[in-house]
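User: Batch of two.

Assistant: Item 1 of 2:
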Amino acid sequence: MLCEICRKKVRTHKNILNLFSIETHHICELCYQRYPLLMRLDVLPIEEGVLLNHLLSSRYYPVNPIAFMSFLKPYYMDFLKHHQGKTMIIFDILDDNTLALLDSLKLGDIYVVSLYENIEGKGEKL
C-alpha cells in the first residue's frame, strides 16, 4: 500500500504473529511523525442536546484527509457501543457555519468526528 502523502510504500515489520494480517494504514511512519494527530474531545451545548466533537488534530495540515481515515475505527466502535441513540457525522473540517447549521437542525445529541477544526470563539466569555 502507498502512503497518501508521500506516495512511498508503507512498510511494516513482519513477524510470525502478523505475517498474514492486512495493512490498513494509509500513512507511513515518517509522514505520521511530520503530521501527528493529537486527539481531543469537546462537549458543546446545542439546542435540544449536546454535540460531542472528537477532534483528531488541532492543527491544519495541507495533506489528503484520506491518509488519516484508518484512525476512525476507534470512534466507530465507541459510537456503536456507547452512543447508538445519537446521530454520527464525520467532517474533514468543522467550522463555525457548519456548527451553526448543526445547531439549527435540532437533531438532539450529535456525535461528530472531525479531522480539523476552524472554530473561532468557543465557550462563554467571562
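Item 2 of 2:
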Amino acid sequence: MKKLMTLVLALIFVFGLVGCSANKVDKDVSVFKTENITRITFHTLPSGGQGFEVPNEYLAEITTWLGSFTVDKKADKALAPGSNSISVEIEYADGTSVKNGLSTTKIDGSTFYMKSEPAPECYFKILELPE
C-alpha cells in the first residue's frame, strides 16, 4: 500500500511540473519579430486612429526599439487606463502585417503587460509628442 501511495504522489508531482512548464511564457524573447520589416506605422486613439508612418531615416532605430519589447507580468482582467492607446502596425517583406498595442500582448488567450527600453527621441518626433 505504501508503494502504491508513493507512486500516486510521484505521478501527481510529475504531472504538476509538466502542467506548470506548459503554461510558462518566455519573458526573454522579443514580442515583435523585427526581421524583414518594410514599414512601421503607429496609431493613436487621441488622433482618431490616424496613422503615423515611420520615415525611412528612423526605421532602423524604431525597429531596434521594437525588438526590446518583452513580456512582463500577467495583466488583471481590467487593464490600466490608457493601455494600448498607442499601437504599432508592422509590415513585412512577405506582405504580412501585425498590429498590436504598445502596452499589452496576448499569449495563449492570456493578456500580459510588456516592458521595453525607453523610446528613442525619434518616436516622439514621429508622433509629434513633446519629449
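The CA atoms of residues 112 and 125 lie 28 Å apart.
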